[in-house]
Amino acid sequence: MITEEPERSGTPLPFFVYGTLRPGEANHDLFLRGRTTAEEPARLPGAALYDGPGYPYAVERPDGEVRGELVTARTQAYTALLAALDRLEEYVPDDPHNLYERVARNVVRTADGTPVRAWVYLAAPRVAARLRAEGKPIEGGDWLSRR
């Protein structure tokens, strides 16, 4: 269920980050510092979080929920940030070798329960199938809880 509508319309979407891009994690300062206007707690319903080698994967699962941050990019930084995050996640549109797929999903702001459409990097189908079969779920869907 990949949607390209936001890109075609030119509408910049915020990003939902749930792993190494969260505040205090390894990639936050490298990719997000100075490029955002807001970072706020949010959750992604309908997904589960799995421990990967050094980083997590969100996998669609109706009974799950992933915790993370909703990140809004500065207008002038949006295009460059989108490209940088695609490179970080090794995402190439329509490439069957992707580890992640960038998809538009509804996430929920933790503070007020408002749903917001955002980009999310979910495990690509072949990775998701492997994780569902033999992966290790992160209890509670929060990457930071693994510490």
From TrEMBL:
Pfam families: GGACT. Residues 15-144 form the Gamma-glutamylcyclotransferase AIG2-like domain. InterPro entries: AIG2-like_dom, GGCT-like, GGCT-like_sf. This is Gamma-glutamylcyclotransferase.
